[in-house]
Amino acid sequence: MAFITGLYAIHAPASALNNSRGENNIGQVKAVRIRNQEYPYASAQAWRFWLREALHNTVPDWNASPIYRGKGKRQQSFTEGDPLRYWDDDLFGYMRAERADDEAKGGALTRIAPFRTGTLMSVAPVELTSDFGVMARDDGNPVLHEHEFYRTTLAGGFSIALRMAGTFTLRDRSGYRNLTADQVRQARSLGLEEVPELDALRLPLEERQRRVAALLHALGRMSGGAKQTLHYTDVSAAFTAMSVLRGGNNPFLFLLSPAAAPEIHLGALDEALMVHAEDMLSPLYLGMRQGFADASRPALELRGLSVLHPRQTFDQLAEALWQHPEWFA
Q1: Least-confidence region, from 60-64, 220-224, 288-292
Q2: Contact residues for 225 (Cβ-Cβ < 8 A; gap 6+)
Q3: pTM
């Protein structure tokens, strides 16, 4: 099975992109403590939220599923759970476990997401900075406050299982019962392809390609993050490395050296390209902004690697999807 597998990195020059619970009037950022050192991070949930916003704002055809809330004391939130109509239900997965008297219309539906994301973690430890502020306008007592921020590179892995995009399994098993009985009948009436070996129904190839291409388009145009009025951080990719690979492992997770200044780990790059040569179904797509890890650029060019702006890299791979239907098989 083919996967688009890659690494996504953000340059955070003075940032607080994902906040934790505040304490004693101090706004805290999310961070992991390892051997008394702090590694700030942006959660996978935050990253996916930014991506959903980018899809909504930059892809006119993107069809987002409505959100429903549980009533009363039931703390539930779920989407429609209809991947036939809604592109994000297809690619981001869902869990809808409502009670229903009519099994044809309700019951437990779950879908393992073809699109998978990691946590955007600082590549190097940092010392968090606390900024002291005062709210003092006109007359009256001032209000004191603090918030944490950091300077680092945040990086995380992502993957898209191309065979499962637009492919809906029918097995009565957690994660694999994607459609209700009514949706199955609707899918068959629309002429969806039967995939007996997966016990699944599949959308036409062109529709599957269109949905994944939209996702890649938005990955090149991300925006969002907390504390933007104070820190104004660009969360679009400063660096990305990705390829279409046979198998779901990610060989690109060590491409950024754990250093305070951004630097490409050339040994890790050479190792990934050598060890995974037989698994790579596409070239390596490298995107790197001017000003990010510039000292590494000559070594990349000596290896014959084309380096574009990250947005151009995502768009280039999105275009390649249309020339390679075998990736979706």
Answers
A1: 60-64
A2: 15, 17, 18, 42, 46, 50, 233, 235
A3: 0.92
> What number of CA atoms fall less than 13 Å from residue 129's CA on the CB side?
12
Helix (H) or strand (E) holding 196: none
What average pLDDT does the structure give for the chain?
A: 92
Cβ-Cβ contacts under 8 Å for 310 (sequence gap 6 or more): 220, 236, 237, 238, 239, 240, 287, 288, 289
pLDDT at 99 over 70: no
The rounded distance, in Å, linking the Cα atoms of 27 and 65 is 33
As a residue count, the chain comes to 329
Task: Report the DSSP pairing between strands 307-308 and 285-288.
Answer: parallel
Backbone angles phi, psi at 148, to 5 degrees: -90, 150
pLDDT at 127 over 60: yes
**Given a cut of 80, is residue 76 above it in pLDDT?**
no
Alpha-carbon distance of 270 to 280, in angstroms, equals 14
One-letter identity of residue 85: R
Which pLDDT does position 98 carry in this prediction? 61
For 101, the token pair is 């008297």
What's CA 63's distance to the chain center, in Å?
18
* Dihedral sign for Cα atoms in the order 275, 321, 91, 196: negative
SS3 per residue for 33-86: EECCEEEEEECHHHHHHHHHHHHHHHCCCCCCCCEEECCCCCCCEEECCCCCCC
Q: Scanning the structure block, which residue is given the tokens 């190792």?
A: 271
Of 160 and 20, more confident? 160
Q: Which token pair is 210? A: 């269109």
CA 196/CA 96 separation, integer angstroms: 25
pLDDT exceeds cutoff 90 at 264: yes
283 near 319, Cβ under 8 Å? no
Backbone angles phi, psi at 122, to 5 degrees: -60, 135
Give the other-Cβ count within 10 Å of 294's Cβ: 12
- Average pLDDT score over residue span 144-151: 89
- Of the candidates 276, 280, 285, 255, the residue with the CA atom closest to the CA atom of residue 267: 255
